[in-house]
Design a protein that fits this description.
Blueprint: H1 15-22, H2 25-33, H3 48-55, H4 58-66, H5 78-85, H6 88-96, H7 111-118, H8 121-130, H9 144-151, H10 154-161
Length: 167
C-alpha cells in the first residue's frame, strides 16, 4: 500500500530483520519478493541473516542466502552467530555455501573459538571437518583449545587434540 519495505526503526531494524529473527518464513518470503534489502544492517551491524543464524531459523537462513543476503566485509558474520549459539544445522549450511571459516569476529575470535568456548561439540566437529584452523590465536594469544580448556569443555578438548585439531 505504498509503505517502503525497507523502513526501519530507530535501531535500524527493518521488518525483514524482525521477521528473520522470529523465524517467520512466510513473511520473509513476502518481503524478499517485494524487494526488501537482504543486506541491510542495523546500527549494531546485524543483518537479517545474522539474526536468523543466531536463532537457528534454518529455513529463513536458506531464503536469505538465496536472495543474496550474505553480508560482505568484516564484523560479526552469520557463521560467528551460528557457532556462538550452537546452531549446528545453520553452521553446516553456511559451511556448504563456502563461507570463510577462519575470519575473526570483532573480538578477534573465529567461529571455531566461539563454539569451543561455549561447549558446542557438534559445531566444533563441523568446523574442523570443513578445515577450520584450530591453531589460530585470538588477540589474547588463545587458541580454540585454550578456550575449551578454560571453559571445562573436555569433549571439545579431546576433539581439538585429534589429528586435524590442535596438538
Amino acid at each position: 500500500r505504498g509503505m517502503d519495505v525497507n523502513t526501519s526503526d530507530r535501531a535500524g531494524n527493518t521488518l525483514l530483520m524482525l521477521a528473520a529473527g522470529q523465524g517467520n518464513e512466510a513473511l520473509v518470503g513476502f518481503l524478499l519478493k517485494n524487494r526488501a534489502n537482504a543486506r541491510q544492517i542495523n546500527r549494531f551491524g546485524d543483518s537479517a541473516l545474522n539474526l536468523a543464524a543466531l536463532h537457528g531459523h534454518l529455513g529463513v537462513v536458506r531464503q536469505l542466502i538465496e536472495a543474496g543476503g550474505y553480508p560482505q566485509g568484516k564484523g560479526w558474520m552469520p557463521l560467528h552467530y551460528g557457532a556462538y549459539a550452537g546452531q549446528a544445522a545453520v553452521v553446516e549450511l553456511l559451511v556448504e555455501q563456502g563461507v570463510p571459516l577462519d575470519s575473526p569476529a570483532p573480538n578477534g575470535k573465529t567461529a571455531l573459538m566461539l563454539a569451543a568456548k561455549n561447549g558446542h561439540r557438534q559445531v566444533v566437529r563441523i568446523l574442523l571437518e570443513a578445515g577450520a584452523d584450530a591453531a589460530l590465536r585470538d588477540p589474547e594469544g588463545q587458541t580454540a583449545l585454550d578456550l575449551a580448556e578454560q571453559a571445562g569443555n573436555s569433549e571439545i578438548v579431546s576433539l581439538l587434540r585429534l589429528p586435524g585439531g590442535e596438538q
